[in-house]
From TrEMBL:
<dbReference type="InterPro" id="IPR001647">
    <property type="entry name" value="HTH_TetR"/>
</dbReference>
<protein>
    <submittedName>
        <fullName>Helix-turn-helix transcriptional regulator</fullName>
    </submittedName>
</protein>
<feature type="DNA-binding region" description="H-T-H motif">
    <location>
        <begin position="30"/>
        <end position="49"/>
    </location>
</feature>
<keyword id="KW-0238">DNA-binding</keyword>
<dbReference type="Pfam" id="PF00440">
    <property type="entry name" value="TetR_N"/>
</dbReference>
<dbReference type="InterPro" id="IPR009057">
    <property type="entry name" value="Homeodomain-like_sf"/>
</dbReference>
<feature type="domain" description="HTH tetR-type">
    <location>
        <begin position="7"/>
        <end position="67"/>
    </location>
</feature>
<dbReference type="GO" id="GO:0003677">
    <property type="term" value="F:DNA binding"/>
</dbReference>
<dbReference type="InterPro" id="IPR050624">
    <property type="entry name" value="HTH-type_Tx_Regulator"/>
</dbReference>
Length: 290
């Protein structure tokens, strides 16, 4: 089976599993249910996933990559700074709309992942989202938002979570552009008129979130590239880009122009959204040092 066929089969199984989880819940859905819905044998399932827990890890990764792909677009320099925060809200709610059944099931059942790998991935995603939001806040408010940046980050996340819960418990067709503009306006008012801040950098760094610094490392990025390389065998253009990236990252002083060029080959591929985000942060760190 070629790399492309393997990835395609895994995606089909995940899509069917998401449909079943949305209808029946995670606990009530068996591997037998999933294989019957896919029209495959259990043996074929186990060629793609070691267990139901392994499938849940991959589904978590699937959604995380979608959200990171959205963040990567918003952080792009081509988007005007005054549009970044509204677009952050809009694209997050748009993903909620597109995957409403599954996300509402998770919230309805108060789904708590017990798999350590799922918990780790969610913590890592939170760290990435925090870093992306801090970038958006800095780009939007500049130096005047510096003291408030952690408070503003929590305000944005609080609004996102609260309105996500509201939408999932009161399903109907919403004007997402108006909602995004409304929430961005609220954040702007707080940013413009707040005179006090509560969360200091010292307090923020003392909290036990996964820290982005641990992820923006040569070793971690190389491990992600190795995983992706094993999935994209026999897909020459992607495989070559990964190989060149790994070769460059292993050098004592990676060349920024080469990294940027290779990242641009992969940034429109959703599967690569996490590694693209981390590579861009890695390049930014190298530029700051130099």
């Amino acid at each position: 089976m070629s790399g492309g066929d393997f990835v395609s089969k895994k995606n089909i199984i995940m899509e069917k599993a998401i449909e079943l989880f949305s209808k029946k819940g995670v606990e009530s859905t068996s591997i037998q249910d999933i294989t019957e819905a896919c029209g495959i044998s259990k043996g074929a399932f186990y060629l793609s996933f070691k267990s139901k827990d392994d499938l849940l890890v991959e589904i978590t990764d699937y959604f995380i990559k979608k959200f990171i792909a959205v963040q990567n677009k918003i952080l792009d320099d081509n988007i005007p700074v005054d549009e970044k925060l509204p677009k952050f809200f809009y694209f997050n709610f748009k993903l909620l709309e597109e995957h409403y059944s599954f996300i509402s099931m998770c919230m309805r059942e108060n789904f708590q992942p017990m798999n350590n790998e799922v918990i780790k991935k969610i913590k890592e995603f939170n760290a990435i989202q925090h870093e992306a939001l801090l970038s958006i806040i800095h780009q939007t408010y500049g130096n005047r938002g510096e003291q408030l940046k952690y408070d503003l980050l929590l305000v944005v996340r609080g609004l996102l979570v609260s309105y996500t819960e509201f939408i999932t418990t009161h399903p109907q067709k919403y004007n997402l552009e108006r909602l995004a503009d409304c929430l961005a306006e609220k954040v702007n008012i707080i940013a413009e008129h707040s005179k006090l801040h509560f969360v200091t950098e010292q307090l923020w760094n003392s909290i036990s979130y996964a820290h982005i610094e641990e992820m923006v490392s040569k070793e971690y990025i190389l491990s992600l590239l190795e995983q992706l390389n094993s999935q994209y065998k026999e897909m020459p253009l992607i495989e070559e880009s990964i190989a060149l990236l790994m070769e460059e990252m292993k050098k004592e002083r990676p060349r920024l122009a080469i990294l940027n060029g290779l990242v641009s080959n992969l940034e429109n591929l959703e599967d690569f959204s996490l590694v693209v985000f981390l590579l861009k942060q890695y390049v930014l760190n190298l530029q700051t040092v130099s």
